[in-house]
Amino acid sequence: MRSYISETAEKDIHSVKLRQDDQGRQEIMNWLTPVDYGPRQSDYLKMRQPGTGQWLLDSAEYQAWLKTKKQTLFCPGIPGAGKTVLTAIVVNDLTKRVSSDPTIGIAYVYCNFWQQGTQKIDDLMASLLKQLAQCWSSLPRSVNVLYDQHRAKCTRPSLDEISGVLQSVATMYSRSFIIVDALDECQVSDGSQARFLSELFTLQTQHGVNIFATSRLIPQIMDQFNGSVSLEIRAHNNDVRQYL
């Protein structure tokens, strides 16, 4: 009887510890940023008609981007061309492909003109860090250290600190994919857009990250992707037929 009681008590203690660990983990993730792009991903994917967007997934450009590290696929298009839904399709495709391989990381952001207040450069980088960090059963040590350094002082990490920890976490993956929708809706006036792109390309250069990005046909943004593979988003015959 005593053995049974002792075993039950140990299980209860273990269960409580797991709950406390989960709460602590969630506290750190929310401290990095309360923004969660998962619900938006689900909403955008629901807008997809069955079979649409397959032309992008089957394209030579996308297939080459999938297979090779350190690649960029830039997909510009006019307003209303369906860039956001296609981005959701890409995120969904990647998630399915790598679901059985924890060494491959995926992070994505949906830029939105009306939410620029929560999409400054620090917010965007913190979101990428949050997504790549939370995939591990135990949070990376660098994330815990960052949190501990600021928690007691009630301060926020600098962009350089976030960037440094993000690069540290990126090294834990054999491959990483970063997907950014609507770069043109990322804030320009405070330099967030330019700095965000610079940070992404640094991640790519130093850690082989693959980048998928969409934008309206804006010269200043398109110039940033000179030399990258580009595939314009436009109404595709197969997609049009799905809506008829």
From TrEMBL:
Pfam families: NPHP3_N (PF24883). InterPro entries: NPHP3-like_N, P-loop_NTPase. Keywords: Repeat. Residues 51-216 form the Nephrocystin 3-like N-terminal domain. Signal peptide: none annotated. SUPFAM superfamilies: P-loop containing nucleoside triphosphate hydrolases. This is Nephrocystin 3-like N-terminal domain-containing protein. It comes from Oidiodendron maius (strain Zn). The lineage of its organism: Eukaryota, Fungi, Dikarya, Ascomycota, Pezizomycotina.
